[in-house]
């Protein structure tokens, strides 16, 4: 397995096993279809980003203006249902022309089943993309590129500047200061950390762990040792990093194992929660809820005993757009993907989606995105379970999230979480491969 994380992109910068019981919604595009002009081709584009629907309408409007022969029909689905919907659609005749696909291990089942079109030599601009970023869109076995990378994400802590000022809290630079700030906020009637661990939100738990625990377990150095077989997930440092989540639980929302992502976004946007440990992808939906919200960002300080002395910022390649191998409109789909590899599209991703674009030459103007970029450039480390341990079953990231939810429910402890992850991934992961 080739494993190269995306540190330095700033400088240049499972599928689920169950199929849907009903047919996937929608269908492919059409020629001169609903609302289309005579001779105009309609391309359907599927995504899991429901919250970005209006932004994509504006973005694709720019494409349509310059490509009057093509109309883009953007159809988003719930993120938790998307993998199964897309898998069903691509295996039948109801899939999209262009699909937003996951990164790293996420699209491998689609690739191996021949559901996506390899883009090597078909999207010329891909040769200028950062090689480490392209790794997230490559086939694990054939090494071909199957998607135009959309963005890269970072994991940091958003905070409400107004709440911090009102409660007399400063941005913490040490772990003790972080805990002291959380206690002060909680005593002041404010939820310190907006964290969700409900049934549909467990996917966020590995991210929260990475934000607070990556420095504790050793960051990139631990990852290299793990991949070489010199360490395991049961290493005391990794166990200690998981326990940090249990230690922080008193400062999470009440009954956190029943809280959803929309609920914590609302908590933070409404000023009822002061800090939101999340990804840069959440900046847009939070500001959409309240554009006047004064948000700052900081890197979580290392906890006592951390293998890394300085704060780190976790990052990864996030999503790409690929072509349905069964689409009869591949010529037009390639026209769209070639445009999505240009700085014009990249800068629209930055301005409209408020994300860090994967396109070379696209630069953020938003002060928060600029700061996130600088933090990652200064201390970027990989999102371990996503980048390296989603290539087999059981998926290490999925095992981790479920076990952490059990820990937060009081059903298990950090050592047992680590043991479950190790037991799961060693069924398919071979160190040094």
TrEMBL record:
- Domain of life the protein comes from: Bacteria
Keyword match Signal:
yes
Alphabetical keyword list: Signal, Transport
Q: Which Pfam families match?
A: SBP_bac_1
- InterPro entries assigned: Bact_solute-bd_prot1, SBP
Q: Where is the signal peptide?
A: 1-24
The family assignment reads: Belongs to the bacterial solute-binding protein 1 family.
Protein name per UniProt: Extracellular solute-binding protein
């Amino acid at each position: 397995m080739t494993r190269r994380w995306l540190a330095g992109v700033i400088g240049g910068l499972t599928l689920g096993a169950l199929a849907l019981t009903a047919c996937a919604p929608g269908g492919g595009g059409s020629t001169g279809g609903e609302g289309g002009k005579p001779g105009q081709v309609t391309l359907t584009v599927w995504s899991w980003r429901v919250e970005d629907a209006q932004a994509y309408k504006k973005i694709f409007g720019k494409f349509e203006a310059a490509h009057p022969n093509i109309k883009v029909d953007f159809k988003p689905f719930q993120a938790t249902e998307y993998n199964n919907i897309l898998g069903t659609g691509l295996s039948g005749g109801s899939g999209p022309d262009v699909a937003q696909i996951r990164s790293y291990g996420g699209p491998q089942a689609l690739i191996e089943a021949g559901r996506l079109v390899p883009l090597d030599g078909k999207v010329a601009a891909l040769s200028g993309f950062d090689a480490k970023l392209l790794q997230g869109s490559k086939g694990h076995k054939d090494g071909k590129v199957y998607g135009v990378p959309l963005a890269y994400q970072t994991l940091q802590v958003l905070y409400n500047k107004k709440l911090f000022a009102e409660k007399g809290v400063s941005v913490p630079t040490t772990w003790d200061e972080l805990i002291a700030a959380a206690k002060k906020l909680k005593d002041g009637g404010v939820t310190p950390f907006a964290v969700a661990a409900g049934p549909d939100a467990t996917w966020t738990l590995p991210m929260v762990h990475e934000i607070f625990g990556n420095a504790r377990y050793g960051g990139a150095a631990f990852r290299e040792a793990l991949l070489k077989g010199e360490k395991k997930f049961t290493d005391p440092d990794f166990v200690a990093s998981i326990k940090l989540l249990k230690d922080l639980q008193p400062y999470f929302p009440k009954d956190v194992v029943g809280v959803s992502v929309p609920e914590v976004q609302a908590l933070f946007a409404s000023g009822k929660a002061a800090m939101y440990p999340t990804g840069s992808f959440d900046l847009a939906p939070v500001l959409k809820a309240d554009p006047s919200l004064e948000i700052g960002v900081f890197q979580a300080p290392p906890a006592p005993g951390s293998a890394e002395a300085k704060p780190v910022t976790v990052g990864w390649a996030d999503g790409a757009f690929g072509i349905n191998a069964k689409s009869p409109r591949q010529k037009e789909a390639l026209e769209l993907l070639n445009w999505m590899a240009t700085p014009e599209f990249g800068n629209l991703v930055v301005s409209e989606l408020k994300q860090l674009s994967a396109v070379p030459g696209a630069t953020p103007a938003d002060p928060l995105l600029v700061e996130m970029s600088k933090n990652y450039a200064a201390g970027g480390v990989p999102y371990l379970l996503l980048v390296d341990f989603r290539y087999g079953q059981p998926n290490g990231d999925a095992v981790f999230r479920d076990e952490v939810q059990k820990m937060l429910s009081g059903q298990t402890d950090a050592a047992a979480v680590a043991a479950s992850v190790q037991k799961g991934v060693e069924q398919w992961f071979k160190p040094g491969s």
